[in-house]
Specification:
Elements lengths: L1 H44 L14 H11 L8 H16 L4 H25 L15 H30 L4 H36 L2 H11 L2 H23 L10 H10 L2 H20 L11 H55 L4 E6 L4 E4 L1 H7 L10 H5 L1 E2 L12 H8 L3 E7 L8 E11 L5 E10 L1 H40 L5 H35 L5 E3 L1 H19 L5 E4 L5 E3 L1 H17 L8 E9 L2 E7 L32 H11 L4 E5 L5 E8 L3
Parallel strand pairs: 8-10
Antiparallel strand pairs: 1-2, 1-6, 3-4, 4-5, 5-6, 7-9, 10-11, 11-13, 12-13
Subcellular location: Cell membrane; Membrane
InterPro entries: BphY/WalK/GraS-like (IPR050351), HATPase_C_sf (IPR036890), HATPase_dom (IPR003594), His_kinase_dom (IPR005467), HisK_dim/P_dom (IPR003661), HisK_dim/P_sf (IPR036097), PAS (IPR000014), PAS-like_dom_sf (IPR035965)
GO molecular function, one term: protein kinase activator activity
Length: 700
């Protein structure tokens, strides 16, 4: 318990000490800024207290802005306005001003500071309250700050000079212009310098911990040439301004702006701000003490006005050039970083593409292979040279039956023609390959940012082993199915014979058991014959020669619908409602096309929920040289994600449910359609059920 109490006491002591330390630091800053403000007021007033009741320079307003910006997050910032008012009252009374003038001047300075900070907050809400981070970084940041400074100075002139005229009875336009320019310039420089210095110090502490460590690191890292350049600018500026301010004639002063340009182009923005502040104070101070080239222009007010015009020009030129340079450096750094990142990503992408086992290539609109990865050379055996005009002969591209491919059947040429992805299997046969290869080419359009397709990307995959394995399996299935028909016929025949023999025997439990066994044998034989027939049909659609003919699709659909209705009536199941629009004739193999339609209609009837009447709609549309046939039903549908898989061999979407099948029906449909050069797809029917769409050649 003792240790716990001591820790609590230490924690309370620490919690109390931190606010006290912050308060002490805040009061020290208040004292420092107040001293600087008083010093600037004294320096600007002393030369004129004997000749006029009005002062002609107000750089101290910039110090006030610096003061209040730095104290925005101070725990004792309520003290600052009180100290500012007290300092202004004391200075004005000490300068011999009347009480009325002192009151006006005392209220005017806080008013200008408040207007400036309000305008700056409206222009850049994020800048106030983040002194250590908000700084001028680009020319676009300068103009709102300049507008705020001009706006605050103008507001002060609009309010202050009528008030001073009312209490003094005098007004001087030259003095108004001087105060306006000097106030705006001092606020712009002092506020920007406060934020830049704070940002630099914050960054140094964050990177190095202490300013001493930062200084040591800078001494080690900053090149001697850069330090020499800083010293050269300081030395040349001091010498040039010292000489020029000692000579008469304004014409020799404005060329000194070249020093500002030098500093702005080569040195840091923080240094440019300090340089501008030094030029402003030097020009103003020399002119106020009636010395230097500006003092020869006649009246003191005119001299001070020209001096501050020069200082404002120097400040704006220096800051604008420095911020342009900073923005350019920032953009250059960002661009370099983006280029490096893009280069790394490109290298990574090249490494990924080069390491692929599949061939990846890009074709132009003429079908030429313009980009490829190493796997493409391995799969094709060679790469087409620019002189090789015919890619089919050069690569040895053939259909799977060994006949040369038609140029218009190449997947990338088909993509160029219709802008749609295409997939095709092709046999590649050329002397540079150790053996024939079967490649599956997947081609897709490559669309640029402008929406224009000027290239085609193709992916080549070696499916030789897969295709040969599938063909071998299909051949084996066909042979086995054919060989099974004879014993299956024998089983069915002797089952019928046994069943007939049992019919003449009197009823007995053993006879009933025998009848039950024969029924199960019959059902198994029916399922076996269905599987054998499907295997034979699958083999037929793969191997049988096509004999295309013009097909009256309306008559074929009517025959299939009548057969399905008769089957339903005989089985006592709901009679399907099959409707067909006026269907387009097509040019295809009649036997395979009938089998295709019968399979799809049979599936639509079979995969309908119990006690639901199947509704099947068949429609067609002419698409170029093909007829697209759509068969829509109201069945149980296909589970999500399986609309492509249902066409795979032996795939069953509703496995384990009360829907028998071998999983070969849709594979047979796909094989039939593909052998005719068409496509078949499955999708959900908006009204419930499934929608199959296939394409076959249209009749001429």
């Amino acid at each position: 318990m003792t240790v716990h109490n001591e820790s609590a006491a230490a924690s309370r002591a620490t919690g109390t000490g931190e606010p006290m330390a912050g308060l002490r630091a805040s009061l020290l800053r208040t004292a420092g800024f107040a001293s600087l403000f008083v010093l600037m007021e004294v320096l600007s007033r002393v030369p004129f207290t004997q000749s006029t009741d009005l002062y002609s320079l107000w750089p101290s307003v910039g110090v006030a802005v610096m003061w209040f910006v730095a104290q925005l997050r101070s725990p004792a910032r309520w003290i600052d306005p009180m100290v500012l008012v007290a300092a202004l009252v004391g200075i004005n009374l000490a300068a011999g001003q009347t009480v009325a003038v002192a009151v006006v001047c005392t209220l005017l300075a806080p008013f200008q500071v408040g207007v400036y900070m309000r305008l700056l907050a409206l222009a850049h809400p994020q800048r106030l309250g983040v002194v250590g981070r908000a700084r001028l970084r680009r020319p676009a940041d300068l103009w709102p700050q300049l507008a705020a400074a001009v706006g605050a100075a103008t507001a002060g002139a609009v309010v202050g000079f009528p008030a001073l005229w009312a209490v003094t009875g005098t007004f001087q336009w030259g003095q108004a212009g001087t105060v306006l320019i000097s106030t705006a310039t001092s606020m712009l420089i002092c506020e920007a310098m406060t934020r830049h210095v704070a940002a630099v110090l914050t960054g140094l502490r964050a990177r190095h911990g202490t300013l001493r460590a930062a200084w040591r690191q800078a001494v080690r890292e900053v090149p001697g040439v850069r330090i020499g350049e800083y010293l050269a600018v300081i030395g040349c500026s001091a010498a040039a301004y010292g000489v020029m301010f000692a000579l008469p004639g304004i014409s020799m002063v404005f060329p000194l702006l070249a020093l500002t340009v030098w500093a702005a182009v080569r040195l840091s923005t923080t240094y440019v701000l300090m340089f501008s502040a030094a030029v402003t104070l030097a020009a103003g101070a020399v002119t106020l003490y009636q010395s230097g080239p500006f003092a020869t222009l006649g009246s003191a007010q005119a001299a001070v006005l020209i001096a501050h015009v020069y200082a404002a020009m120097s400040t704006l030129i220096g800051l604008t050039l420095a911020l342009i340079r900073d923005e350019r450096a920032t953009l250059t750094t960002a661009l370099t970083a983006e280029k490096e990142q893009a280069s790394r990503q490109a290298q990574l992408m090249n490494a990924i593409v080069d390491s692929m086992s599949d061939g990846l290539g890009v074709h132009d609109r003429d079908g030429r292979l313009i980009m490829h990865n190493p796997a493409t050379v391995t799969l094709l055996g060679r790469i087409r040279s620019p002189e090789a005009v015919d890619p089919i002969a050069f690569y040895g591209l053939c259909n799977l039956d060994g006949t040369p491919m038609n140029e218009h059947d190449l997947p990338w040429d088909r993509v160029t023609a219709d802008g749609q992805p295409h997939v095709a299997d092709m046999l590649v046969r050329n002397p540079d390959l150790p053996h024939d290869r079967i490649l599956r080419s997947t081609a897709a359009p490559l669309v640029g940012p402008d929406g224009y397709m000027d290239r085609v990307v193709s992916l080549l995959r070696d499916v030789t082993a897969e295709t040969r394995h599938r063909d071998a399996l299909a051949s084996f299935a066909g042979v086995v199915a054919h060989d099974l028909l004879n014993p299956l016929t024998t089983i069915e025949g002797w089952t019928e014979t046994a069943d007939d023999a049992l019919a003449d025997i009197p009823e007995h439990p053993a006879v009933a058991t025998a009848h039950g066994g024969l029924v199960r044998v019959k059902r198994a034989a029916v399922r076996m014959r269905g599987l054998v027939n499907d295997l034979l049909a699958y083999t037929t659609t793969r191997d049988a020669a096509l004999t295309p003919a013009v097909i009256d699709l309306n008559q074929m659909v009517t025959d299939i619908a009548d057969a399905r209705v008769d089957t339903a009536i005989a089985a006592g199941t709901p009679v399907p409602a099959i409707t067909a629009a006026d269907l387009h004739p097509m040019n295809a193999d009649p036997v395979l096309t009938r089998q295709l339609l019968d399979n799809l209609v049979s599936n639509a009837v079979k995969y309908t929920a119990a006690d639901v009447t199947p509704h099947i709609t068949i429609s067609s549309a002419r698409v170029d040289d093909t007829v697209a046939v759509t068969i829509a039903d109201n069945g149980i549908g296909i589970p999500a994600g399986q609309h492509d898989a249902v066409f795979d061999t032996f795939h069953r979407a509703h496995r384990g449910q009360a829907y028998s099948g071998t999983g070969l029906g849709l594979s047979i449909c796909k094989r039939t359609v593909e052998r005719h050069g068409g496509t078949i797809t499955a999708s959900g029917n908006p009204g419930g059920g499934t929608r199959f769409t296939f394409t076959l050649p249209a009749a001429a």
